[in-house]
Design goal:
The structure is a single chain. With 469 residues, the protein is of the alpha/beta class. It folds into 2 domains: 17-280, HUPs (Rossmann fold); 304-468, Four Helix Bundle (Hemerythrin (Met), subunit A). It has helices spanning 37-55, 71-80, 84-101, 117-129, 158-164, 203-215, 229-244, 275-279, 284-292, 304-330, 342-354, 359-379, 385-400, 419-436, 440-452, and strands spanning 2-5, 10-13, 21-26, 59-64, 133-136, 139-142, 179-184, 199-201, 219-225, 249-255, 258-260, 263-264, 300-302, 455-460, 463-468. The strands form 5 sheets. Strands 4-3-9-10 form a 4-stranded parallel beta sheet, with helices on both faces. It has a 4-stranded antiparallel beta sheet with strand order 5-6-7-8. Strands 12-11-13 form a 3-stranded mixed beta sheet. Helix 4 (117-129) packs across helix 7, helix 9 crosses helix 10 (304-330) and helix 10 crosses helix 12. The longest helix has 27 residues, at 304-330. The chain is elongated. The two termini are 38 Å apart.
Length: 469
């Protein structure tokens, strides 16, 4: 198994520090608003990576932090005239609701910044003792010139950064690129006691302190969006390695940017979409399939047309799952067992996932599996239930447990009777007439619309049957 490591700019074989244990840190949200679909991409792709590591037999300790003290939270608390803690608590609950809706597995730990102030102070003191950090009237800064390898993750160097960096001018810094470890308290802002007086931590020190606290000084995987490579992750390396004198992270994994209709997503352009908004119209499985169909490290253009296409793909997966559940309920133990090489699909799925988490190819293999499984089901009338158990296991292991694009528990099949049946029969008769008239567009439209209502059609040589999901 290998991944593209942002640090080395190449694919590397995955060898954790202490196998079979894997330590995995993901930068979580700043809880001042509902998270957007760009964040959702990072959360979902990190979730798929975590699920796949577990499928491969690793024991993953998965940590995602929550930033609950930040300039944006403070600004919102001032604008809404509410305590900052009330703002962060509200959006923390919203975050947990939304990632649960997106089928993201809960992290092992969700550390909050405000719960780790003492750990941050201790780390800042270590940097100060090594003269890598300096205090100016209650503000503590990291001196980037004291860390020789500064810029090694992003590929930037101090000279280039100093010449072209857009850094806010601050006359109390020794260098414009020096960044805040501790900020002196301002009136009306949350603050804590420290050796440098009352204040609050800078953003970057939070992740260094919390990852060290919960995963140790060297971790296997650190993941996040591409926008975090510089300065956030660069500064984490400077802090953690400056304090501990050894490698901070073995594998840096970053997720590509998400655009909307070929434009950068932003509130000013009016194209800012939250995950919560999208979840009102589309299933979690459709959203996850949409993300999985593109390589995690590359850019992704979001459009509703693309999401609708993913929804149709999701329907094909659920349709086969519904047929499988129906046949398993019949429990036919005397039928034939058609040839179908399940092992081939497992091997192909693992091969592409081992190659830098190639989810687009993994999805293609699942759809190839579905196409061939449907062909076998159409070709044979009396199939042994063991065949359907094999199909279900493969889909559960891959589409459900790893990619999260299927959920067999959503399939509760039920019997229908009365008026509903009669109306469906009328639509089926109309569809047969349309097909005879070669009006396949409208015939397919009836099938697709019924599918959206949970009515699954199955065309056979004898005619069309249906089941209600």
């Amino acid at each position: 198994m290998q991944f593209y490591n942002t640090f080395s700019k190449s694919k590397e074989v995955f060898e954790p520090v202490n196998p079979p244990n894997v330590t995995f840190y993901v930068c979580g949200p700043t809880i001042y608003d509902y998270f957007h679909i760009g964040n959702a991409r990072s959360f979902i792709m990190a979730d798929i990576l975590r699920r796949y590591l577990e499928f491969k037999g690793y024991h993953v300790k998965y940590v995602m932090n929550l930033t609950d003290v930040d300039d944006r939270i403070i600004k919102k608390s001032i604008d809404e005239k509410k305590p900052s803690g009330e703002i962060s608590n509200f959006y923390a609950e919203a975050f947990f609701e939304d990632i649960k809706s997106l089928k993201v597995k809960p992290a092992t730990v969700y550390p909050k910044a405000t719960q780790h102030i003492d750990d941050m102070i201790k780390l800042i003191q270590e940097l100060e003792d090594k003269e890598i950090a300096y205090n100016v009237d209650g503000n503590v800064f990291y001196n980037v010139s004291k860390f020789n390898d500064y810029g090694k993750l992003s590929g930037k160097n101090l000279e280039e950064l100093s010449a072209g960096a857009r850094v806010e001018i601050n006359e109390i810094k020794k260098n414009p690129l020096d960044f805040a470890l501790w900020k002196k308290a301002k009136e009306g802002e949350p603050s804590w006691n420290s050796p440098w007086g009352k204040g609050r931590p800078g953003w970057h020190i939070e992740c260094s302190a919390m990852s060290s606290k919960h995963l140790g000084d060297t971790i296997d995987i650190h993941a996040g969006g591409n926008d975090l490579i510089f300065p956030h992750h660069e500064n984490e390396i400077a802090q953690s390695e400056g304090a501990h004198n050894h490698k901070f992270v073995k594998y840096w994994i970053h997720f590509g940017f998400l655009n909307i209709n070929e434009e950068k997503m932003s509130k000013s352009l009016g194209n800012f979409l939250t995950a919560r908004e999208i979840l009102k119209k589309y299933t979690a499985e459709s959203i996850r399939l949409f993300f999985a169909q593109t390589y995690y490290g590359g850019p992704l253009n979001f459009s509703f047309d693309l999401l609708k296409a993913a929804e149709k793909g999701s329907e094909k997966i659920f349709n086969l799952a519904a047929i499988i559940e129906t046949e398993i309920k019949k429990d036919n133990n005397v039928g034939i067992s058609p040839e179908f090489d399940i092992k081939y699909y497992y091997d192909e799925f693992e091969k592409v996932m081992d190659d830098d988490l190639n989810t687009p190819q993994a999805v293609a293999i699942i759809f190839d599996f579905i196409r061939n499984a449907n062909k076998v089901i159409a070709d044979y009338d009396n199939i042994n239930v063991s065949f359907f158990h094999d199909l279900k296991k493969f889909l559960k292991d891959t589409a459900q447990s790893i990619l999260g694009i299927l959920d067999f528990e959503k399939l509760g099949l039920k019997e229908s009777s009365g008026l509903d049946d009669k109306l469906i029969e009328i639509l089926l008769s109309l569809r047969i007439k349309l097909k005879k008239e070669k009006n396949f567009f409208l015939a397919d439209q009836i099938r697709d619309d019924l599918n959206k209502l949970g009515i699954v059609l199955k065309d056979t040589k004898e005619g069309t049957t249906y089941k209600i999901r």
